[in-house]
């Protein structure tokens, strides 16, 4: 990307401090009780797992999972294919470049809070095609189809990514069952929302940056979907804003673990029992970094609102209902257009 352009420079309050607080306290949760044939929902080890999930969602909004059942070899294969793609010449990557009409594919000018991120991305949707509203206009009821743009090189990228995202979907839905149980709900309470999912996956490539004190790989943000399942290589960079004191803390890479974070949709469904937490990506001058988040998101027609089981006179609904599809396409548009205002947030639907 060359010398740093002013478009990458963060506002003074968002510029990273290069002193690192590496956080050992982010929960690491062993999912092996999920795969124990003798384990049942009333088994003490399973109950302990549900309790740990609930505590992590409540206190951190982030946690790591190990012994998760996702094949390590698929992850390694996917990472190798992704590196081949990003290490191509720019004109080759631009063959699948996305724009404000075709919003899925390769891009190197993504914005977070109207500041350009120091990264390249390639994204794709799990369902092909994916059904979404044709526009953010609340009065426009037309539906459109999003189709993925698949590159010719590497030749096995499409197959590898689709196999990988299938496993991420399985893991995400298992975690949603645990989250449901931790809220006192039936384990499959959330599954119906994902029947016609808009779930998607993104490959993030962060080149070395000459000015890591001015720019960010991804600016501070909260994930807008239901649940994020993130894999990263062995180069650290992800930072989470700790709920207890507002400090930015680094998430230490753990071999073969996945980093899970609660999205805004769960924040609303749970009526703020669980909260989506702000996070960002730091850069360095020497090493590139790759990460691979899978975003579990509901069908476009889903009206997101606090679940009736979690609302009562003592705990009234904290959010108005909103349409996920309209919210989603509005957020996607902000990747391309500097709106000069804050992008739509779940707090816009907060009941005062």
From TrEMBL:
InterPro entries: DIOX_N, IPNS-like_FE2OG_OXY, IPNS-like_sf, Iron_ascorbate_oxido_reductase, Oxoglu/Fe-dep_dioxygenase_dom. Belongs to the iron/ascorbate-dependent oxidoreductase family. The keyword Metal-binding applies. Residues 197-298 form the Fe2OG dioxygenase domain. It comes from Phaseolus vulgaris. It comes from the Eukaryota. Pfam families: 2OG-FeII_Oxy, DIOX_N. Gene3D superfamilies: B-lactam Antibiotic, Isopenicillin N Synthase, Chain. Keywords: Iron, Metal-binding, Oxidoreductase. PANTHER family: 2-OXOGLUTARATE (2OG) AND FE(II)-DEPENDENT OXYGENASE SUPERFAMILY PROTEIN-RELATED. GO terms for molecular function: metal ion binding; oxidoreductase activity. This is Fe2OG dioxygenase domain-containing protein. The keyword Metal-binding applies. The lineage of its organism: Eukaryota, Viridiplantae, Streptophyta, Embryophyta, Tracheophyta.
């Amino acid at each position: 990307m060359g010398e740093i352009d002013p478009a990458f420079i963060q506002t003074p309050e968002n510029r990273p401090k290069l002193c690192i607080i590496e956080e050992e306290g982010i929960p690491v949760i062993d999912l092996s009780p999920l795969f124990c044939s003798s384990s049942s929902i009333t088994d003490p080890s399973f109950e302990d797992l549900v309790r740990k999930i609930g505590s992590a969602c409540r206190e951190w909004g982030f946690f790591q999972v190990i012994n998760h059942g996702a094949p390590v070899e698929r992850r390694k294969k996917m990472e190798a294919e992704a590196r081949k793609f990003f290490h191509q010449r720019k004109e080759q990557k631009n063959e699948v470049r996305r724009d404000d009409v075709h919003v899925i594919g390769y891009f190197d000018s993504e914005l977070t809070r109207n500041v350009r991120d120091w990264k390249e991305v390639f994204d794709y949707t799990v369902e092909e095609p994916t059904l979404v509203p044709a526009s953010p206009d609340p009065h426009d009821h037309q539906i459109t189809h999003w189709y993925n743009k698949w590159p010719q090189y590497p030749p096995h990228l499409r197959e590898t990514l689709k196999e990988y995202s299938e496993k991420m979907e399985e893991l995400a839905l298992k975690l949603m069952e645990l989250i449901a149980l931790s809220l006192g709900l039936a384990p499959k309470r959330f599954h119906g929302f994902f029947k016609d999912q808009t779930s998607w996956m993104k490959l993030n490539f962060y080149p070395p940056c000459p000015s890591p004190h001015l720019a960010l790989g991804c600016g501070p943000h909260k994930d807008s979907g239901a649940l994020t399942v993130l894999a990263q290589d062995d180069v650290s960079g992800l930072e989470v804003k700790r709920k207890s004191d507002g400090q930015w803390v680094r998430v230490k890479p753990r071999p073969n673990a996945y980093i899970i974070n609660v999205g805004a949709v769960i924040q609303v469904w749970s009526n703020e029992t669980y909260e989506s937490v702000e996070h960002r990506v730091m850069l360095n001058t020497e090493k590139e970094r790759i990460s691979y988040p899978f975003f579990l998101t509901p069908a476009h027609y889903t009206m997101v609102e606090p679940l009736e089981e979690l609302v009562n006179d003592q705990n009234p609904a904290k959010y108005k209902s909103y349409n996920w599809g309209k919210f989603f396409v509005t957020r996607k548009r902000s990747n391309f257009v500097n709106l000069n205002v804050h992008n739509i947030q779940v707090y816009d639907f907060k009941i005062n």
